[in-house]
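Q: What structure does this chain adopt?
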Amino acid sequence: MADSIGSPALWVGFTILVLTLLIADLTIFHRKPHVIGVKEAGFWVIGWVSIAALFNAGVYYFAGTERGLEFTAGYLVELALSVDNMFVFALIFTYFAVPKEFQHRVLFWGILGALVMRLVFILLGATLLDRFHWIIYVFGAFLIVTGIKILRESDVHVDPEVSTVFRLFRRFVPMTKDYHGQNFTIVESGKRLATPLLAVLVLVETTDLVFALDSVPAIFAITNDPFIVYTSNVFAILGLRSLYFLLAGIMDLFRFLKVGLGAVLIFVGFKMALTDIYHIPIGISLGVIVLLIGGSVLLSVLIKEDIIHVEEPEEAETIQPTPERSSRHTDN
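A:
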């Protein structure tokens, strides 16, 4: 496998750190379900970004400037790509009328699953790149094509009724019509049944799986160190939940961000495909990434248009996994 700063001790230590943060999040700070407001979400965004910055500072100090810049670039790319992810999450939550106080629980377990999937993808990608050098051209071409597709496609539409995953879930998993508090499953008449909240979790996991196919190769285009790839991914994902609650209602304001993301993927795709001909210094790569993402956000702020917000239901009303609506039960 490619040279990595990640010794076994570092991998174990990082895993313990992440598990500690997640356990504290679930058992201390979000023990009881509640609606997360903008102020609380902003506090958590600052907290997660600060932890990532401290880790990045450690990488700079112990592993050198190049590895530190690689972490920074990987973190920014993953965080920016996550905005598209959050938009789909918002559409899924809206479609199923998920009560606001239960959305953090779905995102928590969804992100826990995402961490495992990313680890598998990253280790697999690192192994393939190490054994088959020509894979870099495949990854590079894939990123270029994906970037062009993002530039050309229109707004994202989510309709679980035509989702293969949701249709299979509804067909093979017995499910209640209504929500039952924050439970993913309940026992009813002696039978274990899923609730719509579990269906939402499955769709969130599936969405992240699809997005990982873009983001993991994109960061491998920046660095071939699996430890840097994984840690930058993890810190970006950990802050994703809080960022969602901070931006959930105004994501359409960043209408040019998709252009910036597409351009970033095209850039890193060419960087990866041309690596044997010319190695673009990481400082230049980071500058281009910041310029493209920052420029697209700035354009979104400066060039206004009528915004249609992604709104969530005011009432804690639920939706069946079928088009008909039903009232919500809060039984646990």
